[in-house]
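hey can u check if this looks right to u? its 320 residues, i copy pasted from the old doc so theres a chance i mangled smth
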Amino acid sequence: MLTRKAVLAVFFWTASTLAAAAFPEKPIRVVIGFPAGGPLDQHARLLTERLQAVLGQPVVIDYKSGAGGTVGAQDVMKAPPDGYTLMLANTGVMVINPALYSKLPYGTLKDFTPIARTAMQPLALLVNPKLPVNTLKEFMDYTRARPGQVNYGSAGNGGISHLVPEMFKNATGLFMVHIPYRGSAPAFADLMAGQVQFMGESIPQAANYHKQGKVRALAVTSKERNPALPDIPTVIESGIKGFEVVGFYGFLAPAGLPKDVTAKLSDAFRQVMTNPDIRTRMVSQGADPAFLGSEEFGAFLAAEMPRWAAAVKDSGAKLD
């Protein structure tokens, strides 16, 4: 005869199993820690329409912007771990912020359940088109002959557009001066005006301005050339061995998400990512389709954190 304790254990196991089998039974909220209209928003909108069809429930995007994505991450961290609140995050939120903020209210590996990595996003290294250089090597020679006279702009201290040029400086021994801006728009404006001469920026915007002749792309930071800039070589091709620095997009849930729900959500994203139209449209947005399931995404995050922590330390950036 089963004891009362055993009966209760069977009851709760059965109830949780049935709940996981029925999941999802209501709309799913995807939190983005940045304003509408940005790259993460575009990525979310691209995937959620197909995700709704796979899961059979509406997927609603909720913007919780502030503090470099920290506000949105806190919102998700505090949500019930039931699969109905997810976060679409990027490199900055998950692996740069932990090294950048001295009092970050969340821990990437302890406060979230990785669901799926969906994309990798390389950057393009850009110069003002009036600069007398056409290749990355020529730019390096130009800058090396003018130590401290070349400025590079970024969207702000500690962001990926700051850290990637810092990694490039460390890899080449170049001396450039960092000029931080409040967002990429004013940084781009000054790059085009010649107030700064160099910048690292995500592919979509970089490719658009390059094709208009407003900036000149010299190299991309991925291991292979990017379809949006097919004629532009990689940094590795340009002579900097092993230089591959790429941001990522991925979905996470609060810590403690049941394994069955995690698996169901991860598989749903896998199905979305196999759709040829989704993959084509993702490339047009400047992101490379790069699916990883829950466990693999978790291992990826654990490996990326020390790499970006070193970049933050080398840059001297710190936010409180």
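The two ends are 59 Å apart (CA to CA).
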